[in-house]
Request: fold
Amino acid sequence: MRRAILWLCLLCLLLGGCVPQKAQPKHYTATFLTLFDTVTTIVGPAESEEAFQLTAQQIHDDLERYHQLFDIYKDYEGVVNLKAVNDSAGIAPVKVDPEIMQLLTDCKTYYDLTEGKVNVMLGSVLSLWHEARTDGIRDPINAKLPDPEALAAAAAHTDPDSLILDEAASTVYLSDPLSSLDVGAVAKGWACQRAAEAAPKGLLISVGGNVCATGPKTETGDPWVIGIQNPDGGDYLHTIYVHGGAVVTSGDYQRTYTVAGEKYHHIIDPETRMPSDYWRAVTVVCPDSALADALSTALFLLPLGEGQALLERCGAEALWVAKDGTEQMSPGFQEILRT
Ligand code: ADP
Ligand code: MG
Reply:
């Protein structure tokens, strides 16, 4: 009898050992080209293609809503967006949706945190760069820099205190008629964060390189492997392991134009009113995608020491790529490096 029990136990053990591991659900990918003027990719597991498409569509719809609300160039039927706020500068407060109020409240925090380097009230200055870049791309032979006097005059209308938020009345008012908002430095990261919070766990959402993981790649906790773009193009500069949270890069290779053989990028130092000259690219890794986006822009505008101090205050990690291709990494960034 005892021998029978022993055999039974052995058989159970053997069978137990042979029980196949639960199969990991298949991963699917969806791509959208109409959000934030860039490519959005969503990757993740699902029981079926149809189930994944439903999830991806929900994320798309969330991102599309933020895209329309934060747009400063276009009107959308039935949407009161930041263009409407800019159009009413110096005229009247505008009643806005809670997402605009929250974004702008967060932007005030980022202004303080970055000691004014990330200022969404820089619209008057940034619009001159936007105009010069658009004209320069359309007609490269006659490409020009914005007029320095016009830039200096515009800079007089970038005071963050003229952005007046009235939470009780849900209104935003630009008290300076010549001021305007441009939330390009934080909008994609902010939208990605909100969309990720509402999405199922274990997805990867990338809005034009603003990457957000809503949890590990597999149920068993395997990390995602995320590629960091090489500023010179070609293969990834590095790949890193990420279990969740955000990876955001600001680079001098985005939204550029050329004047007299010199390339000019789109991240503008509020003090000089010119594109900054410290780095080719800065990548920030931290749990919150909106903060990561604000920090990547700020670090791009700061020398290494000041950037490191800011990073430590925020509990984030970063990779800096200098003009000569040399790299700096914060200690935590080194730890998640794969290649
Ligand atoms: P990307 O939009 O390519 O991801 P960033 O997050 O660094 O890169 O944001 C750059 C955008 O932010 C610019 O296109 C412009 O709209 C805006 N911007 C540029 N300089 C500043 C600044 N100093 N403060 C706030 N916004 C800025
Ligand atoms: Mg940014």
Remarks:
- The longest helix spans residues 49-70.
- The chain has a mean pLDDT of 94.
- Residues 132 and 138 are 10 Å apart (CA to CA).
- Residues 84-182 form a domain with the T-fold fold (CATH 1.10.3980.10).
